[in-house]
Amino acid sequence: xxxxxxxxxxxxxxxxxxxxxxxxxxxxxxxxxxxxxxxxxxxxxxxxxxxxxxxxxxxxxxxxxxxxxxxxxxxxxxxxxxxxxxxxxxxxxxxxxxxxxxxxxxxxxxxxxxxxxxxxxxxxxxxxx
Amino acid sequence: xxxxxxxxxxxxxxxxxxxxxxxxxxxxxxxxxxxxxxxxxxxxxxxxxxxxxxxxxxxxxxxxxxxxxxxxxxxxxxxxxxxxxxxxxxxxxxxxxxxxxxxxxxxxxxxxxxxxxxxxxxxxxxxxxxxxxxxxxxxxxxxxxxxxxxxxxxxxxxxxxxxxxxxxxxxxxxxxxxxxxxxxxxxxxxxxxxxxxxxxxxxxxxxxxxxxxxxxxxxxxxxxxxxxxxxxxxxxxxxxxxxxxxxxxxxxxxx
Lengths: 129, 255
Prior knowledge:
The complex is a heterodimer.
Chain A: H1 2-17, H2 47-68, H3 77-84, H4 98-106, H5 112-115
Chain B: H1 11-25, E1 28-32, E2 35-38, E3 61-66, H2 76-84, E4 101-107, E5 114-120, H3 128-132, E6 138-140, E7 146-148, H4 158-162, E8 169-170, E9 189-190, H5 196-199, H6 206-210, E10 216-220, H7 227-234, E11 237-238, E12 250-253
Parallel strand pairs in B: 3-12
Antiparallel strand pairs in B: 1-2, 3-10, 4-5, 6-7, 8-9, 11-12
């Protein structure tokens, strides 16, 4: 019982002296995500809301567009890349580009661009069969 | 001194307003009383659906293909489809390439008569691909267009087995050349979408627009005033494998 009391005391002391958690990226050792907006302008929602909810907005919109056929919604992946595709690569997926930058920082896999075109103003070509 | 008139109480004004409202609904613009600007040459084009409105079940999009007009050796519809939908991959095994639309040649062995026709997703009213889909990815939109929701498609290819027309393809390799309006990617099944992105804008599917013989008519099967409904009402048309009673949206003439 005495041992347990000692252990609890040591643990409490450790918790008390440890510094408050800092945001990753505040120090120099961790690289921060680069957020460059190629065509700054008015987004469909304020940045705080976009950062938290862009995936939800796109998810609900995609179901309405595809399954119900509702077009012209404010949240649209193609509209995202019109402003956010970098001027250098024309894409949102190049190293340090808008989507790639934060997603690699947060280690969240991006599935959207397996099917969707990540380049702004891209013109598809077909081939003869 | 007369009592002030409300706009409606003036019969002449009311008449002009009513006339204006009437012609506005028909696609005319009134330049001046008695002088109307009419839209000409757009009679066949479907009207673009307003932003924010869902596809209507009152509409059923369909396609009528005249096999007699389909020229041998012509692949314009296939080229146009593949350009519009960004189908550009050439895989080592050509059997794995996606085919959204293909040309079929029928030969009557008794007399040698050759019939050409393009074959694609028939946009059935009772689609077997939708019945068998284990995730609900294969779906029919309210206006009769059968689509694959790639967000939920797991690539099991059960729908490819179920389709009597071999209309669906599986994407075997990663893609990078997609049309921004036509997302498609590895691991999903795909097929003709009736150019849903164009139809929603009030345009015709790419194959219909490209056909030099005018062999394809696109329109609303439910609208008796549409070209396609009038043609179907006046000439004999067939649904391929009508015995399956799937009520296809794609009809053929001259088979």
